[in-house]
Amino acid sequence: MSRISETTRGVFVISVTPFDDSGAIDWASLDRVTDFYLESGADGLTILGIMGEAPKMTQAEAAEIARRVIGRASGKPVIVGVSAPGLAAIADLGKAVMDLGAAGVMVAPPGSLKTDPQIHGYYGHVTRALGEEIPVCLQDYPLTTGVQISDEVMGRIIDDYPSIRMLKHEDWPGLSKISKIRAAEAGGRRHISILCGNGGSFLPEEITRGADGAMTGFAFPEMMVSVCALMAKGDRDRAHDLFDAYLPVLRYELQPGLGLAVRKHVLASRGAIASAALRAPGAGLDAAARRDVDFLVERQQRRLAELGFDPGSPAR
Predict the structure, then answer these.
(1) Where does the chain bind pyruvate (predicted)?
(2) Which fold has domain 10-231?
């Protein structure tokens, strides 16, 4: 399996972790949702991220999930989230999943980092603990981690730690960060792959600023695949038309504390997973919220048909 690099592009879908109603991992649904993402046109997958409920897993479960998905992906690259409070756990899981054939690992900064020197130094510790041969995706998600990585510190991290090959960009507002990274590259800084998150909520604008694709888990991955393809062809208006059709569902899914439940409800409705259950602590949608989402999805499908898109199929 190929590894991520500074030139990696496309859509890497952040996978949910399916559970049954008792909270046990639903292995059959894990296979099914892996197939679903790849059949939707994804270029790769990212597992055990924040929306994959990684903090609720044991280390053994995490390793087995990685084994299962990497094997199922049939050569498509799989990035594995290995974020943890301690470096020993990051290194242990990181090296284990790379031995299983992972394409790279993703590491978010712990919320304990408060100063610029701490943030910069932390990624030095991470890359040394993993070994510089392991490619790292830095997850920049201050809305969840509470860690704000300034443009200047991000530049120093890129300069000083060459095994960080990719940025998962989820700063908000953060379009200027992409622009500044690309401007610095024009001035001689090494290139880094940038894939964007936040449910894909700013995907067309991010690509315009120089992002290489998406890395997020919106329940309609074919939207992200299609928007990236249309933008690559230079059809910006058509990309925005398509994107706008999905915005009501995307907006509903972005609600803090509710987003994963919405995502799992939609994936279950689409047959990608058997149950919308979250592992405790975490609750699903109530009946009113399910009705809201179902109504928005129905309107979305009608709008896609009006625009001449085939709902469920990536537009190339």
Answers:
(1) 215
(2) TIM Barrel (3.20.20)
Q: What pLDDT, in 10s, does the model give residues 49-75? A: 988 999 999 999 999 999 999 999 999
Q: What is the pLDDT of residues 266-286, one digit of tens each?
A: 999 999 999 999 999 988 999
Q: Are strands 136-140 and 44-47 parallel, antiparallel or unpaired?
A: unpaired
- 98 marked ligand binding residue: no
> Which is nearest to 249 in space by CA: 172, 307, 304?
304
Whole-number Cα distances in Å, 299 to 60, 108, 192, 312: 42, 36, 38, 14
Contact 155, 185 (CB under 8 A): no
What is the dihedral sign for C-alpha 116, 254, 210, 80? positive
Task: With CA atoms as reference, report the closest residue to 139 among 95, 191, 194, 176.
Answer: 194
Asked if 33 and 273 touch (Cβ cutoff 8 Å), the reply is yes
pTM score, whole prediction: 0.96
The one-letter amino acid code at 99 reads: D
Least confident of 145-154, 170-179, 305-314: 305-314
Contact criterion met (CB below 8 Å) for 106 and 79: yes
Please state, in angstroms and as integers, the Cα–Cα distance from residue 280 to each residue in 24, 146, 284, 293, following that order: 10, 23, 10, 22
